[in-house]
Amino acid sequence: MATDIRIDYYPTHEQEGIKFRRGHVLPFGATMVPNGINFSIYSSEAIDCTLVLFERGELAPFAEIRFPEEFRTGNVYSMIVFDLDYERLEYGYRMDGPFNPEKGHRFDKSIILSDPYAKAIGGRDTWLAKPNWDDVYPYRSRLVFEDFDWENDHPLETPIEDLVIYEMHVRGFTQHPSAEVKNPGTFAAIRSKIAYLKELGINCVELMPIYEFDEWENSKENPVTGGLIVNFWGYSTVNFFSPKAGYAATGKFGMQVDELKTLIKELHKNGIEVMLDVVFNHTAEGDHRGHTISFRGIDNKTYYMLTPEGYYFNFSGTGNTLNCNNPVVRNMVLDCLRYWAADYHIDGFRFDLAAILGRDQNGAPLSNPPLLESLAHDPILAKCKLVAEAWDAGGLYQVGSFPAYGRWAEWNGKYRDGIRKFLKGDDGLVGKMAQLVQGSPDLYYYRGPTASINFIACHDGFTLYDLFAYNEKHNIANGENNNDGGNDNDSWNHGVEGETEDAGINQLRHRQIKNALSILMVSQGVPMILSGDEMGVTKFGNNNTYCHDNELNWTDWGLLKKNDDIYFFARHILRFRRAHPVLRSATHFQHRDYVGSGFPDISFHGTQAWKPDYSDSSKCLAFMLDGAHAKNGTIKDDMIYVAMNTYWDALYYELPVLSAGRNWYLAVNTSMPSGEDIFEIGKEPILSEQGRFLVGGRSTVILVGK
């Protein structure tokens, strides 16, 4: 019986027993096809390309196949190679072309280059395992099998206003011995902490960079401590499509893809979204003194922003800047994010130094950045959260003005700065606070409060505990004479720099942490907390711990017991937010009563009801939310009254009079000892005096009217 035979299943060329034929130009990268592997790579200026094939772990290649000229279509080289062992294969490329840095060309055919589209990278399979420095090909492109059983898993699509984001470093979260987990510092270890995340009230984890990077990059002995300085945070990408093998317990077996997918699947089963911190502003290749790994040797002029003299623009502060609005690079970024959304079921992305993504090839800000527009309207990314860090190291600061296209949210750096200054008692902040707790309508009037990712501490800077324990940064251990890290911390040590035995100071610091968490959780917008802040983690005043694989970055789980009052409070204030939909509006307040309840949706007060004091010397602000307006009046909630006092003495606040049949109940009073500072939902005690309340110095009070 005759059958149709596809001729592209069969070779047309042979070299030393290896058979191959012309390939398919799309997709880029290495993909499995019947009987073989299709390799496709782009370079606008190369004059020749050679495919280099290795057995896994072998120092010398077993074959090098030059692409015949007829295998090139436009600027794309493609080839199908038959009968390769998919599981044992590592591959790379040699690119030949001009080496003329002044014109942007840095070709060197002696270097074997990684595939920008590789789905896994070998050579750095175990965290901090000493590399073979003589390896001719240290970052090895590999294939992965698309055989993971997701069952019925899919991205959760939780409304963004309902999220509580938890910024986490994969290794730091479970590496400390106190974590008491199997395979500490890995994707697998996080699974054993999912119950903890649920108990805390987290429904979205934001993972600091998990793309393949090299922790040995710029490693050196610390001249101060004698320890090893490494690239711990990972903001220096080697490959955008590959999860870091060193973060996987199974990385040494090449199973990092399945281990990460298993983590995401388990998080989703427990109602927790996964957001990735992605770094498309620069790569690990650095400036002209850096290593050639991939992009530079394939097509330097396409992938990087270059000065007219051929040097690298450095808007990232790390040596180079990815040329994201070049159509080829833009498509790579799109392909990458589509891959993570579709193949890893990722729920959202936070873009590091995202202002760079809006610069043209000469570094000038674009009025209509094509990459940002493409991401916003991409059909595959349509349900993904897109979050911008709306500034870069080149001085472009776009908080409130980042090109949003109706889709982008922002890390609200102005929220962080304003809350910090208010909590330490600075003058002239009350009017600003009235904006911040509403979701910054002064910044996001046309975009809604969900454009504001509210945070007070993140990986970059002081932890929440250190914010109230240090006046100055203490970065000596970084080996840079304390010159690195920001100086504008807006912190206050409350009388003693660092740790102290003074019970009064420690009590006040804990109260300030509770004040910060309270304000964060009653603010409109999307709250984000730094991993460990719920238990009072400290980095001992170091505000730039990017290089430390030690206790400065490892979460000390013993703090759950030491600071049990902070953890108890954090857990309950997150539950309070979850219980009250009036705290989670997707639209800005209208400052009027549009449902006929007798109260406006939001009202502001001072020590006198209905009379806020916005003078420079004022340190008091209260606001009331009418639960009849929750979710634009579609859901009924209680009245919520929040009183903030950053004055050093207690003050009486006159309370708004509720409608007949309702009373004020005490939910939160941070001036009280643990156990009396926050109450379970439904167990709040009624106020004995309904007309006024004494708010302690440097305290926050939350009342529920029902």
UniProtKB/TrEMBL annotation:
GO molecular function terms listed in the Swiss-Prot or TrEMBL record: amylo-alpha-1,6-glucosidase activity; isoamylase activity
Record-annotated Glycosyl hydrolase family 13 catalytic domain positions: 135-577
Compositional bias (Low complexity): 478-490
SMART domains according to UniProt: Aamy
Positions of region (Disordered): 478-500
GO annotation terms (biological process): glycogen catabolic process
Claim: Iron-sulfur is one of the keywords in the record: no
Entry keyword Amino-acid biosynthesis: no
Keywords: Glycosidase, Hydrolase, Transit peptide
Name assigned to this protein: Glycogen debranching protein GlgX
Source organism of this protein record: Dyadobacter frigoris
